[in-house]
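Handout, section 3.2

Students often ask what a structure token actually looks like in practice. Rather than define it abstractly, here is a full record for Serine hydrolase domain-containing protein. The first block is the sequence as you would receive it.
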Amino acid sequence: MPDMELLPATSRALLHRLATAQAEGRVPSLVGAIVRDGAPVWTGGRGLVGGQPPTTDTQYRIGSLTKTFVAVLVMRLRDEGRLDLADPLGTHLPASPPAAAGLTVAQLLAHTAGLPSETPAPWWERTDGGVRPELADLIDADPVKHPAGRVFHYSNPGFALLGALVELLRGKPLEQVLTEEILTPLGMTRTSLLPQAPHADGWAVHPWADVLLPEPATDTGLMAPAGQLWSTVEDLCRFAAFLGAGDPAVLAEASLAQMRVPASPLDGPVWDLSYGLGMQLKNDGGRMLSGHTGSMPGFLCTVWVSPADRLGGVVLANATSGISIGALAADLVRITAEHEPRIPDTWTPLETYDPALLDLAGPWYVGPAPALIRLRADGDLEFGPLTGAGRSSRMKARGDGTWLGLEGYYAGETLRVVRDAAGAVTHLDLGSFVLTRQPYGSDTVPGGVDPLGWRGGPA
């Protein structure tokens, strides 16, 4: 059973980090939480909401974290076969602005479509959505900022179009689709498009004085998929648990893993931030985090998950600026992981297995390079270099005698077992690479093997 309590020293360190951020950032209120093994194990709040300390049931606006909810809905449509990520948007959304109709669903999810970051004026986050009644109103007269598919360029209108796509294919308003397909299955009863009491008010803090200015809580209309949602720490702990491990009632872990793969060029050899399919990705000192930050006038939000640590961090605040909330949430995850490293699962052997699979286990050679295939306790195969770094992948049985690569260079590639007339394994074919039991040890190697075989160096 997982340990559901943090050590006192860990809780103290988390509270200190949260309290320091609230005090130094001059944030009216701040709530944070840690999720471990799918359940909240620590929460903390600072400041006041309506004269009372905020709780895990206090609603805050979560801004662009809304985009990850919309991306999950799009991936559900993909998994159902209702669309392909390579489909042009106009194939499914005929009312798309002409400049967006030819952009693919994947490009919109990954912010590589080249669309503008914002709508035409006025500032959409602070104005009623009624000023943009049509999808064409979301894109300005000079819509192409970059060639499609080439670079990452964050686009709020792009996600508004994806929200319209979901509504059209489902034939229901976005809030209804969210409720039926994500919120209800995950038990998220306090997440909504408009605020529901008890909720925090949004504030701007004067940069040079300790005084506040109320921010408007607008209904952004068609732009809602870009940043409209309100939620609580309690609900977002459930969402973080889902993002870390998946839920068959909402989206499979394999689809979430696809969303966590960087979809645009990384920034240098050592990257800090990247973007997948509706998910922000953060390399926090070697710890790979995924989730999303969010901001709207008066509010800041972040949810980060570290699947490898089985941890998630949630932070909500009601200030327009003042703190780096993404760094704060990452710090909460890091503090927990450093104070209480994850205890590995107990190793157990396979209960049943096909003895023929043992023919696949052990050393193989890709040409002269030694590799290793190991049969895992979950029934998958693990392929990689025998020593050192190199191409590796986990492989899952397809049921027809072949294996599907799940990650890395061989993601999506097929491993085939080739046998002779007597049924003995002669070699493996991995995406056309021939694996043999000895270095270049088979006449099945493309190009043939020199008939004189291995020899000493030239005289």
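Discussion prompt for tutorial groups: The mean pLDDT is 93. How would you have guessed this from the sequence alone?
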